[in-house]
Amino acid sequence: xxxxxxxxxxxxxxxxxxxxxxxxxxxxxxxxxxxxxxxxxxxxxxxxxxxxxxxxxxxxxxxxxxxxxxxxxxxxxxxxxxxxxxxxxxxxxxxxxxxxxxxxxxxxxxxxxxxxxxxxxxxxxxxxxxxxxxxxxxxxxxxxxxxxxxxxxxxxxxxxxxxxxxxxxxxxxxxxxxxxxxxxxxxxxxxxxxxxxxxxxxxxxxxxxxxxxxxxxxxxxxxxxxxxxxxxxxxxxxxxxxxxxxxxxxxxxxxxxxxxxxxxxxxxxxxxxxxxxxxxxx
Length: 282
Ligand code: PAF
Prior knowledge:
Number of helices: 10
Bound molecules: pantoate
Radius of gyration: 19 Å
Distance between the termini: 46 Å
Helix content: 25-40%
Low-confidence stretches: none
Strand order of the largest sheet: 1-4-3-2-5-6
Mean pLDDT: 97
Largest sheet: 6 strands, parallel
Strand content: 15-25%
């Protein structure tokens, strides 16, 4: 695996692969990698002969007061995991490479609507930062495929929409959430949990699973089951932000929806945890 920090080094290598007729699959990350990221790289390997991974803790997607400074940075460990997973090129740019004019950049990529609901309502500007950095990374790497975890369901929807609206020649691929054995979705922010909080955290998955079961059994009073799920989480010690039942493309669900997604965001101690489950209705 080659590790580079400069945009021109990425361009040079990718251009060489493209000239040789090799397609490129790209996995953007913020590092502190876990089995969920390794699954993204494994899927990338199935899609294309060349795999590029970026590790960049993107300042513009952190809302003021969030954990940008505390966000875990583990570059050596990330490098070993990515080499073992079969990455060809690791791009680890310093902040000045991605934002050479500091935070005074003029151009932003915004996907209004989709970016303003759910997590976007609690983290205003977050998805604008995500869409902007991912658009920049797509421009640098020029991949045929880009892979993102389905745990960040709304992020995936925003990025699919961005690629479609901007006619970007990249196939945005979702990869199923990887869970711990007790159901907790893997996340770099799980590291913020104390032992007691870690023991409590799978309650999010249990709550989602119970809600999904009720939907499969015919429950259609969405507002009341959303409220009950939030009360269940809050009584267990979470500070829930939302539990929301949506259509698969994140609209308010209609009466004859064939596929729903149940999404949750809740704070537990220092961690903000998100998760979701999709439900196919018979
Ligand atoms: O999901 C993430 O880790 C980040 O939001 C991403 C897509 C790498 C953009 O910084």
